[in-house]
Write a structure and sequence with these properties.
By secondary structure, the protein is α/β, with parallel strands linked by helices. It has two domains: 17-222 and 396-416, Rossmann fold, CATH 3.40.50.2300; 240-394, Glycogen Phosphorylase B (Rossmann fold, 3-Layer(aba) Sandwich), CATH 3.40.50. Helix content is 40%, strand content 14%. It has helices at 17-32, 65-77, 93-107, 127-133, 162-175, 184-200, 209-215, 254-266, 285-293, 307-314, 331-338, 351-354, 367-384, 397-407, 410-416; strands spanning 55-63, 82-89, 118-122, 142-146, 178-181, 217-219, 240-245, 271-276, 298-301, 319-321, 342-346, 360-361. The strands form two sheets. A six-stranded parallel β-sheet has the order 2-1-3-4-5-6, with helices on both faces. Strands 9-8-7-10-11-12 form a six-stranded parallel β-sheet. Helix 8 (254-266) packs parallel to helix 9 (285-293).
Length: 418
């Protein structure tokens, strides 16, 4: 059984639609609340906040979209704390990994000098350094949340600085009172990565370091929003709409996507491709080639700014495709599945933890073989009909409010240390 935070378990009872709708409207209002630059809004959720509530500080070291959604849900859910949040912009990743404590110091934020009962930091924060340089934070119970870990960085693209990032993760994990991961794959790859690193070191290596880390490591996934009503029925037309909703970067496997599209086109498979996800100044060559070679198959290409427009798009896609080589939970995939898309995923990373074998294509060192496996799966679905969409309601925000309240609690840390 996976090590999970208290309260996180699968339930057979149906989700109360009225409770989900109430929560979703409340959360949407929360997302729209005004916030100071670099800091989340401290709008509180179901109960009014008073000065009697203990204070908690949240530090987010690389505040990209998924980290923003997680942080807002955490603050909105754990209303038994009076939250303050400091978030560093999602740019210059290498600098954030090594320089987050200095960047926090450069902001000269008075929040760092207040007294708290709980400190939560993401794994891109060097928690050991932060708690050492701010006297008021040194004795505060701390939780380190891993959206990702640097020990699972793809070997083909590892920069020389990755060992520095790994040491940041390691020292922060040693300093924290509890470690929380968004998936068991994330937890396992971190622990096995630490063990592998320890074997490479020349001497004076602690013998039971990994055992201590494993003892305080647990799993609590990032919550996803429940879908809105109005999902179209499964496809009855001749053409399927395939969605690829990932960042346009190398770690999302654009070369494999190109190979899959090329093989589908070669066998005259009837499909339209919808490409969404954030784009940056440098677009991978494989995505540029895909757009140039297969314009007739492209129905949509580019990031969709409007959240409502994006959710509407999800409800009209048939299959969501992943080609990722670097993934720790797969929020974009989960969101699409919750809106009715059938997932087609590589048999690696965190996907086997959340999705059955029937939704996964074969992993291989050969891109062409992986593409052939994915195309074969699509052809089988074409002949037999699409499988049922997986039920992800256990990951809906309304389901995870109470587990989050139990997991992110100084009281739980105190009990665990006894």
């Amino acid at each position: 059984m996976l090590p999970r935070c208290a309260g996180y378990q699968r339930r057979d009872r149906p989700l109360d639609p009225s409770r989900e709708a109430l929560y979703d409207r409340s959360l949407q209002h929360y997302f729209m609340a005004d916030a100071q630059p670099g800091r989340l809004s401290t709008l509180n959720g179901f109960i009014p906040m008073t000065s009697d509530h203990p204070k908690a500080l949240l530090l987010s070291g690389y505040h990209a979209l998924s980290q923003q959604a997680w942080a807002e849900f955490l603050v909105h859910s754990c209303t038994h704390y009076q939250w303050q949040t400091i978030a560093l912009p999602a740019r210059f990743f290498a600098w954030r990994m090594r320089g987050a404590p200095l960047s926090l110091s450069a902001q000269n934020d008075p929040l760092l000098h207040q007294h708290y009962q709980l400190l939560v930091a993401t794994s891109s924060i060097d928690l050991a350094v932060v708690q050492s340089i701010y006297p008021t934070l040194r004795q505060v119970p701390s939780i380190l949340y891993f959206h990702e870990n640097q020990f699972a960085y793809p070997t083909d693209n590892q920069p020389k600085a990755v060992i520095d990032w790994q040491m940041v993760n390691l020292y922060a994990a040693l300093r924290a009172d509890a470690l929380v991961f968004n998936s068991d794959y994330n937890r396992q790859s971190f622990l096995s990565g630490v063990a592998a690193l320890m074997k490479k070191l020349p001497d004076l290596v602690p013998q039971h370091l990994c055992t201590g880390l494993a003892h305080k490591a647990q799993v609590m996934p990032v919550a996803i929003a429940a879908p809105r009503p109005g999902r179209a029925q499964q496809p009855t037309g001749a053409t399927w709409r395939l969605l690829w909703n990932h960042r346009w970067e190398w770690d999302k496997g654009p070369e494999l996507l190109l190979a899959i599209v090329a093989q589908l086109a070669a066998c005259n498979f009837p499909f339209k491709l919808i490409l969404t996800g954030q784009q940056f100044r440098t677009i991978p060559a494989a995505l540029r080639e895909l757009c140039a070679r297969f314009p007739d198959y492209l129905e949509q290409s580019g990031y969709i700014e409007s959240r409502e427009d994006y959710r509407a798009l999800l409800q009209h896609c048939d299959i969501v495709l992943s080609t990722a080589i670097h993934e720790f939970q797969g929020i974009a995939i989960m969101e699409a599945v919750s809106h009715g898309c059938v997932p087609l995923l590589p048999d690696r990373l965190s996907y086997p933890e959340f999705f059955a074998q029937s939704y996964r294509y074969q992993h291989s060192d050969s891109i062409e073989q992986q593409a052939a496996s994915a195309v074969s799966r699509l052809q089988a679905w074409r002949a037999q009909g699409l499988p049922e969409v997986p039920d992800l309601s256990d990951f809906y925000q309304a389901r995870l409010v109470e587990p989050y309240r139990q997991c992110f609690s100084a009281e739980r840390l105190a009990i665990a240390s006894i």
